[in-house]
Design a protein that fits this description.
The structure holds 3 protein chains of 3 kinds. Helix content of chain B is 69%, strand content 1%. Chain B is mainly alpha-helical. A two-stranded antiparallel sheet of chain B has the order 1-2. In chain C, a hairpin with a 5-residue loop joins strand 4 and strand 5. Chain C contains 10 helices and 9 strands. Chain C is elongated. The chains are: A alpha+beta, B mainly alpha, C alpha+beta.
Chain lengths: 388, 418, 301
C-alpha cells in the first residue's frame, strides 16, 4: 500500500513538474482550463523550445481573459509613442464595459494565453521597420483597435477625438473612466423569417443567458457599439413586433447551431410566437422554487445532449437523507423530535406510486397528530431562508 | 506604251506656270500654313498643354494618329511603287516612281517633324540613336523611320543631280564653286547609279518593318484599346493596309497634280496601276474580317457607339466600296471614278490610323473623352498644306512628273487651276 | 542602275546584310535593366484597414519636393466626392468607393505606380529610360526621356503622368517606390506615415504569404483574391479588399498575362537576330536580279 501511494505521489509530481516547465498553465492542471488544449496555440503535436510551432494570432479562437471590466485598470496612460501628440489617457474601464457586450477583454487582448494579461506593447513592435511584418507595429495596433470602432460609431477618424497635440493647454482628455450604463437585456425577441413552413421564431433571450448558460459573445461576437449607438444604422429590438431578418440563413443560424445543430427546423420555426421552454410540458417534470432558477447545466451535465435524469432527490442531492438534510435551508428549523423522522413521515403522498416523499404538497401531520395541521402548527421554528 | 515618258521639271516644260505661282489655291494654302505655324509657336513657347487637348488620360492625340501614323501609311506609295518599278522591274510604271518617291520623302519629313512637335523634350529627339531599347516597338519605328528618311533622301538625290548637272551656274563670288560643284554632282551621280539599288531594296525592307511595327505600337496598350482594333495581328493589318493604300495614293496624287498643274492625266499608267489595287485591298479585307471572326469581336458591332460606327465606316466605306470599284473596268478607265475609289481607300486607311490611335484608345480612367483642339487641328492641317506647297514647288523645279518626251511645251488646252 | 553589274550587286548586298547582322547583336544587349529578383520588395495594401486619412498623399509630396501644404488640410474629406488620379503634382492619391457590404463604411483605395514585375513602361520606353531594379522598384532616368509619352500609352494601370504645361524640360512623373529612401534603409514615405499600417512594406513573397494567411483567417473580411499577385504577371504592390476592387473600378480589371508580352514577342519575332529582315532583303535582291536578267535576255533576243 505504501508503495502504491509513493508511486502515485511520484507520478503526480512528475506531471506537475512537466506542466510547470511549460510555463503557461500556472495551476499545473493539464489544460482543460478555458478550453485550452495544446492545439489552441500549437500547430504540431510535439512543440519544442526550438520549434514551438505557434499558430498565428488566433483572433477567431480568442482565449477569454476572465476578468470583469471592474477588475481591470480604470484609466491607462498610453505614452510609448509620443513624438507628435501628448500621451493618450485611455478610459480602460469604460471600454472594457463596452467590450463586455461583445468580445470581452479578448477584443483588444487578443492572443492572450491563460497567463498574465499582456499589454499591446508586449507583442507589437514600436519600430515600423522590423523583421516580423506579419503583425502591425505598435502605432498601427493601437490605431486599428481604436479606429475600427470609432469610425463606425462617430463616422470620423479625426485624430483630435483621442489625441491632444503637444503644447496644448489641456493635458488630459479623460481623467477617470466613466461607467457604461448597464445593457438592458430583452426577455424575448420575435423574428420574422423567410422560412415558409414557419415564419416566426421566438427567441427567449434572458432564458438563454440565465438558464441555458449562453455567453454574450457566443452570439454577439461581431457586434459593436453601433448596434446600439449608431443612430443612422440602429437595429430595432422588440419583443412584440416581429423583426424582419436581413441576414442570410447561415449568418443567422450560426449562433443557434452551436447548440441546436441536431434539432428539427420546426423546433424554432413556428406559425406564431410561442412561450418559453417549460420543463413540465416538455419533460413531464415541473421545476419549482429552487430548481426553476438553476442553469440547465447544474443538473444536466451534458448540455449538448440532454438525457432524462433520475428525479430522485438523492440522485443529485446526496445529502437528502434522513439526519443529513439541513432542513433550516427551507426556512424551517426542525425541533429535536422531528429531526429524527424519515422525510416521508411528514412529506407523504399516498398516491405516489413508488412511495416517494411528496415534497410538492404540504406536509401531512395526521400520521402522528390528530389535532395538528401544517402550516398552522409547525414542527420547529421559522428561520431566515439562507440563499446560495 | 505609245509614247515615251520622261520626267521633267514642269517649269522647264511650261513657262506659263512660272508666272502664276500664287494662284488663289496656293494663297489659301499659305494662310492655312501660317495659322498652323502660329499654334506651333504657342506649343514651343507655352508647352504642349497650352495648345492640345492631351492630358494624362489621353497622352496621344491626332498629332500621333494623323501626322505620324497616317502620314507613314499614306507615304507608302514610295515603297510600293519602288517595289513595282524597280524590284519587279515593270518599266511601264517607271513614271510613277518619282512622284511617289517625292510624296514619300515629303511625307516622312513631316512625320519626323510631327514627332518633333509632339514629344515634350524635342531637343532630345536624337536620343534613340544612342540610347537603344530593342524591346520597344516605338524604338524600332523611330530607328526605321530615321533610316528610311535618309534612304529616301539618297533615293531622291539622282533627281537633284539630273536637274543640276551641266546647269550649275552660281553668280558673283560663288561662281568660283561652279566647277567643283559640277564635279561633285557628277561623282555623286556616278556613285549613286551603281549603288542606288541597295537603297531601293533597303527602303522596301525598312518600310515593311516600320509599317508593321507601327501596328505593334498599340498592341502594348492591351485592354486600353477597344477590342475591335486590339489584336496581335495588328502589325500585319498595318502592313497590308499600307501596301494597299500605296497605289491609290499615287493615283490620287497623279490625278490631283495633273489637274492642278494643267497636265495630261496619265491614265495609261494609272489604269493598270489601279488594276493591282483590288487584290491587295482584298487581302487586307480578308485579314481584317478574318481576325474579327477569329476573335469574335463582331459582337461589339451590335452595340451602337462611336467605336462600332467608326469601325463600320472604316470597313465599308474605306475597304468594301473601293474594292468593288477597283474591280470594275469602267472605274479603272474613268479618271473621276478612279480618283474617287482611290480617295476612298486613302480615307479608309486614314480613318483606320485615327481609329487605332485615337478612337480605340479608351483608358480605364478618364474625365471625359478626347477630341482634338483647334490648335491640334490647325497644326495638322497646316502641315498637310505645307506638304502640298512643297510638293508643288518641287515638281515645278525638279524632274519628277513625267511628260511625253516630244511635246513638253505645248499643252495649251489645259488651263492652270489652284 | 541599268549599268549595274552582277558581281558588285551581290557584293554590296552581302556587305549590307553583314552590317545589319552585326548591328543586331549590339541591339540585343541594348535593352534596359529589368531585374526580377527573388527578394524584390513590395507593399501590401489592406483596404479594409485604410481609414482614408490621406497622410500618405502628404508624405509622398513632401518626400518628392512637391508642394504639399499643411498636413491638417488633408483632413478635408470632400475630395473623395470625385475620383482622382495620380498626376505630376501628386504621385499617389486615395479614392473612396462605396462598400457593398456596409453602406456607411466606404472603402479607401490608394493608387500609385504598381511597380509591375513585367513592366510595360520598361519594355515600351523608346530610349530605355525605365528600369526595374533589384528591389522591385520601377524607376526612370529623366535625362534620357524625350517626352514621347509612350510609357503612358503602355501602362495598364494608367499611372505615368506628364507635365503638359511646361514648355521646357517637361517630365514624366510617377511613384518611384521612394527609391532614394529605400536605398538608405528607410521605408517608403507613405508606408512610414500610415497611422494604421494599412501599407506593409516587405519582401513580396512574404507579403503574399501574410495576405493568404489573413484571407484564411478572416474569410468574412476579405474576398479570396490578392490584387496584384497575378494581374499583368504580378505587381510589387498588392491589395487586399473586402470586395472585388476591379468590379468597383478602384483598380483596372486586368488579365494575368504580362502587359508587354504580346508586343515583345511580336517585336522579337520580326527581329529574331535580324534574320527575317535580312532574309527579306536577300529575297528582294534576288527578285530584282531575276527580273533584271529576264529583261536583259529579252532585250538581247
Amino acid at each position: 500500500m505504501k508503495r502504491v501511494i509513493c508511486g502515485i505521489l511520484f507520478f503526480s509530481t512528475l506531471v506537475v513538474a512537466q506542466n510547470k516547465s511549460k510555463n503557461h498553465l500556472p495551476d499545473g492542471k493539464a489544460g482543460s482550463l478555458q478550453n485550452v488544449n495544446c492545439k489552441t496555440c500549437h500547430t504540431c503535436d510535439v512543440p519544442t523550445k526550438q520549434n514551438p510551432c505557434l499558430i498565428e494570432c488566433p483572433r477567431d479562437e480568442m482565449i477569454t481573459v476572465h476578468q470583469t471590466a471592474e477588475q481591470g485598470p480604470d484609466v491607462i496612460k498610453i505614452d510609448k509613442l509620443t513624438n507628435k501628440y501628448l500621451p493618450v489617457t485611455f478610459s480602460h474601464k469604460t471600454h472594457s464595459q463596452m467590450s463586455a457586450m461583445s468580445g470581452g477583454c479578448g477584443n483588444c487582448h487578443h492572443y492572450n494565453t491563460a497567463g498574465p494579461i499582456l499589454a499591446c506593447a508586449d507583442c507589437h513592435n514600436t519600430e515600423r521597420k522590423r523583421e516580423d511584418i506579419s503583425k502591425p507595429d505598435l502605432q498601427a495596433a493601437y490605431h486599428r483597435q481604436c479606429i475600427d470602432c470609432h469610425k463606425e460609431w462617430s463616422h470620423s477618424t479625426d485624430c483630435n477625438s483621442c489625441h491632444l497635440e503637444k503644447g496644448s493647454p489641456i493635458t488630459h482628455k479623460v481623467t477617470k473612466g466613466k461607467d457604461h450604463p448597464k445593457v438592458k437585456e430583452p426577455e424575448k425577441l420575435i423574428y420574422e423569417t423567410n422560412y415558409n413552413k414557419g415564419k416566426i421564431v421566438t427567441f427567449f433571450h434572458s432564458d438563454h443567458t440565465k438558464l441555458f448558460g449562453a455567453e454574450c459573445i457566443s452570439c454577439h461576437q461581431n457586434d459593436n457599439c453601433t448596434r446600439c449607438h449608431d443612430t443612422k444604422n440602429v437595429q430595432t429590438v422588440s419583443s412584440t413586433i416581429p423583426e424582419k431578418i436581413s441576414k442570410t440563413g447561415s449568418q443567422h443560424h450560426q449562433p443557434c447551431f452551436k447548440c441546436h445543430a441536431n434539432d428539427e427546423c420546426s423546433k424554432c420555426h413556428l406559425d406564431k410566437p410561442t412561450g418559453p421552454f417549460n420543463h413540465k410540458t416538455s419533460t413531464g417534470w415541473a421545476l419549482t422554487r429552487f430548481h426553476e432558477k438553476l442553469e440547465c447545466a447544474k443538473c444536466h451535465e451534458n448540455t449538448n445532449n440532454f438525457t432524462k435524469l433520475n428525479n430522485d432527490c438523492v440522485s443529485c442531492h446526496k445529502n437528502f437523507v434522513t439526519g443529513k438534510f439541513e432542513h433550516e435551508k427551507t426556512g424551517l428549523k426542525l425541533d429535536e423530535i422531528h429531526q429524527e423522522f424519515d422525510c416521508g413521515d411528514c412529506h407523504s403522498e399516498s398516491n405516489l406510486p413508488d412511495g416517494k416523499a411528496g415534497f410538492a404538497n404540504k406536509p401531512d401531520c395526521s400520521g402522528c397528530h390528530d389535532d395538528k395541521s401544517y402550516p398552522k402548527d409547525k414542527p420547529g421554528s421559522l428561520v431566515k431562508v439562507i440563499k446560495k | 506604251m505609245s509614247e515615251y515618258l520622261k520626267p521633267v521639271p514642269i517649269y522647264l516644260a511650261d513657262r506659263q506656270v512660272q508666272k502664276k505661282f500664287f494662284t488663289p489655291g496656293v494663297i489659301v494654302l499659305c494662310i492655312i500654313v501660317l495659322n498652323g505655324l502660329l499654334f506651333l509657336a504657342a506649343r514651343f513657347l507655352f508647352g504642349i498643354g497650352s495648345v492640345t487637348n492631351l492630358n494624362n488620360q489621353f497622352p496621344w492625340g491626332i498629332w500621333i494618329g494623323i501626322d505620324v501614323a497616317a502620314g507613314v501609311a499614306l507615304a507608302a506609295g514610295g515603297f510600293t511603287s519602288a517595289a513595282l518599278g524597280h524590284i519587279m522591274h515593270r518599266e511601264h510604271f517607271h513614271s510613277i516612281v518619282r512622284p511617289a518617291l517625292l510624296t514619300a520623302m515629303l511625307g516622312y519629313t513631316f512625320v519626323a517633324i510631327g514627332v518633333f512637335v509632339d514629344i515634350g523634350r524635342w531637343y532630345y529627339i536624337w536620343h534613340p540613336l544612342v540610347m537603344w531599347n530593342g524591346n520597344s516597338a516605338l524604338f524600332e519605328v523611330g530607328i526605321c523611320v530615321m533610316m528610311y528618311v535618309t534612304v529616301l533622301y539618297i533615293e531622291f538625290l539622282p533627281v537633284v543631280t539630273e536637274r543640276f548637272i551641266g546647269k550649275v551656274n552660281l553668280k558673283g563670288y560663288l561662281s568660283f564653286f561652279n566647277k567643283p560643284l559640277e564635279k561633285l554632282l557628277r561623282i555623286l551621280d556616278k556613285g549613286l547609279n551603281k549603288t542606288i539599288f541597295i537603297f531601293i531594296i533597303l527602303g522596301v525592307v525598312l518600310s515593311t518593318l516600320h509599317q508593321s511595327s507601327l501596328g505593334t505600337l498599340m498592341v502594348i496598350a492591351g485592354s486600353k484599346m477597344h477590342p475591335l482594333w486590339q489584336t496581335p495581328v495588328l502589325p500585319l493589318l498595318f502592313l497590308l493596309s499600307a501596301i494597299s493604300v500605296g497605289f491609290p495614293m499615287v493615283i490620287f496624287e497623279s490625278i490631283t497634280a495633273s489637274k492642278s498643274l494643267g497636265l495630261k492625266k496619265e491614265m495609261e499608267v494609272l489604269s493598270p496601276l489601279g488594276y493591282t489595287v483590288a487584290p491587295l485591298l482584298g487581302i487586307y479585307l480578308a485579314f481584317k474580317i478574318g481576325d474579327m471572326f477569329i476573335r469574335e469581336t463582331f459582337v461589339y458591332l451590335t452595340e451602337l457607339n462611336t467605336a462600332s460606327i467608326m469601325f463600320t465606316i472604316e470597313v465599308v466605306v474605306g475597304i468594301i466600296i473601293p474594292l468593288r470599284m477597283f474591280l470594275s473596268k469602267k472605274v479603272l478607265k474613268t479618271p473621276s471614278l478612279l480618283f474617287t475609289a482611290s480617295a476612298l481607300v486613302i480615307f479608309g486607311v486614314l480613318l483606320n490610323r485615327i481609329n487605332n490611335f485615337v478612337v480605340a484608345y479608351t483608358p480605364p480612367y478618364s474625365f471625359g473623352s478626347y477630341f482634338p483642339s483647334i490648335g491640334e487641328i490647325s497644326v495638322t492641317v497646316g502641315f498637310v498644306a505645307l506638304l502640298v506647297l512643297l510638293y508643288r514647288i518641287i515638281v515645278l523645279n525638279f524632274p519628277v512628273i513625267s511628260q511625253p518626251d516630244k511635246k513638253f511645251a505645248i499643252k495649251t488646252k489645259y488651263t492652270i487651276k489652284g | 542602275m541599268e549599268k549595274q553589274n552582277r558581281r558588285s550587286f551581290f557584293k554590296s548586298a552581302g556587305l549590307l546584310t553583314a552590317t545589319i547582322a552585326g548591328a543586331s547583336t549590339k541591339s540585343v544587349k541594348a535593352s534596359p535593366e529589368n531585374i526580377l529578383s527573388e527578394d524584390r520588395m513590395g507593399v501590401l495594401v489592406d483596404t479594409t484597414t485604410c481609414i482614408g486619412c490621406r497622410n500618405c498623399e502628404w508624405a509622398c509630396k513632401k518626400t518628392h519636393n512637391l508642394p504639399a501644404g499643411e498636413l491638417n488640410s488633408y483632413e478635408d474629406k470632400s475630395v473623395f466626392k470625385e475620383m482622382r488620379r495620380p498626376d505630376s503634382s501628386a504621385l499617389t492619391v486615395v479614392n473612396q468607393y462605396e462598400n457593398e457590404k456596409r453602406i456607411n463604411f466606404p472603402i479607401n483605395v490608394k493608387v500609385q505606380c504598381m511597380h509591375c514585375d513585367h513592366p510595360a513602361c520598361v519594355s515600351a520606353c523608346i530610349v530605355g529610360a525605365f528600369s526595374k531594379k533589384e528591389n522591385g522598384s520601377v524607376i526612370w532616368d529623366t535625362d534620357k526621356c524625350i517626352g514621347c509619352r509612350y510609357c503612358m500609352v503602355a501602362c495598364p494601370f494608367q499611372v505615368p503622368s506628364f507635365e503638359y504645361d511646361k514648355a521646357l524640360d517637361p517630365e514624366i512623373r510617377k511613384c518611384d517606390f521612394c527609391f532614394e529612401r529605400t536605398k538608405e534603409g528607410l521605408l517608403p514615405a507613405c508606408v512610414e506615415i500610415c497611422p494604421v499600417e494599412a501599407l506593409v512594406y516587405g519582401p513580396r513573397s512574404e507579403l503574399i504569404k501574410i495576405a493568404r494567411e489573413k484571407i484564411k483567417k478572416y474569410p468574412d473580411r476579405y474576398i479570396e483574391h490578392i490584387y496584384g499577385e497575378n494581374e499583368v504577371g504580378g505587381t510589387s504592390w498588392l491589395y487586399l479588399a473586402g470586395q472585388d476592387l476591379a468590379k468597383t473600378k478602384a483598380l483596372p480589371a486586368l488579365e494575368t498575362k504580362t502587359a508587354p508580352g504580346v508586343s515583345e514577342s511580336i517585336q522579337h519575332g520580326i527581329f529574331a537576330y535580324f534574320v527575317p529582315p535580312a532574309s527579306l532583303y536577300a529575297l528582294l535582291a534576288g527578285i530584282m536580279w531575276l527580273n533584271k536578267k529576264k529583261k536583259e535576255s529579252s532585250e538581247g533576243e
